[in-house]
Amino acid sequence: MVFCNVKLDGLDLKQAKDRVGDFLSSTKQYKIFTPNPEFIVQAQKDDDFKNILNAGDLNICDGFGLSLFSGCPRITGVDFMIEICKISAEKNINVYLLGSGNDEVVKKTAENLQIQIPGLEITGYNKGIQINSILSYDKEENERTIQSINESKAGILFVAFGMNKQERWISENLSKMPNIKIAMGVGGSFDYLSGTVRRAPCFLRKIGLEWLYRLIKQPSRIQRIWNAITIFPYIVIKNKFIK
User: Fold this and answer.
1) Inter-helix orientation angle 37-45/47-54, to 10°
2) Cα angle at 17 between 213 and 184, to 5 degrees?
3) Pure H helices in the chain
4) What pTM value is reported for the model?
5) What is the side-by-side strand order in the sheet with 122-126?
6) Nearest residue to 158 via CA among 119, 196, 127, 118
7) pLDDT of 60-82, one tens digit each?
8) What is the DSSP secondary structure assignment for residue 74, as one 8-state letter?
9) How far apart are CA 174 and CA 153, in angstroms?
10) Which domains does the chain have, with CATH numbers?
């Protein structure tokens, strides 16, 4: 389906996992993105970002509000990342972790995932390149990063650069990494998986109040949360009125 001009696949968790299995059995390369209300807001004012999202091969619905308004089953990015890691362990496919901007965070993420998922092979990790406010980056540093990924022989790549940056980077660079079957943008997932940031209690996630917990813990996120709980509903109503 297309929701506020952004593609959503509307799959439940089992269907999405089956789709990943199909991707890994193919000879092609695939992009997985995780639209949430912030993505929808950004896509309304950034056509390049919108087009990149709409070229995703699997767009899961990540966000209580997006699920509520679109009717798509909610699959959080961090939980789906874990499910993909389980599939990779079953199929003996190596994984590479890229991003977070912090050596310790990405290292701890790798360690925790391998403890949590027996048989998971994470053959490389890197805190990632610096991407500036106009979404450009140092080409030489980028080439070294790509070389590291290629040398790892990984088949699955998780990229944690943050919204827009990670999707754009994947779209621009996936073809340079022929061993990668699946590249997924995972936002702040490494922060959760490393234990750097604590997730909201399960009951708050279920009733859609994870944003309140995150605001209390991270007041600096207020602009992002404002977009999700105020601007996003306005965009939804506006789009429905226009139609």
Assistant:
1) 130
2) 65
3) 13-25, 37-45, 47-54, 64-70, 77-91, 103-116, 139-152, 165-173, 189-194, 202-206, 210-217, 222-226, 232-242
4) 0.95
5) 58-59, 30-33, 182-185, 156-160, 95-99, 122-126
6) 127
7) 999 999 999 999 999 999 999 99
8) B
9) 14
10) 2-194 (3.40.50)
